[in-house]
Amino acid sequence: SLSHTHKQKHTQTHTHTHTQPYSSLLLLNARGINPSARSVSRWKVPALQTFVEDEAARKHSLPFIFLSETWLKSYISDAQITIPGYTVNRSDRGLRNGGGVALYSRIDLPVLCVD
Fold this sequence. Notes:
By secondary structure, the protein is α+β, with helices and mostly antiparallel strands. Helices cover 24% and strands 18% of the residues.
């Protein structure tokens, strides 16, 4: 019957798995991402790199990764917190402890930084 055929088509549409090429963004309160050997948070950037690689293997792309509370200081270079395939823009708190933000954006996406 027409009703039965419609149900089959409708069911088939909803059982098909569809993966989105992009997720919106990843937002994390990092509570520190200091990569130095003595830091208790030195594991966080490698863990984030692994997460990004795992998502890419699932065909999920994260165009933006936003970290709050990075706790970085100016003596820590961008190269020390790099994630392959991403550009990092950051604003460290400066003289005070805590704070700071970082935005990782995929290298193929244009991002304009305004001071």
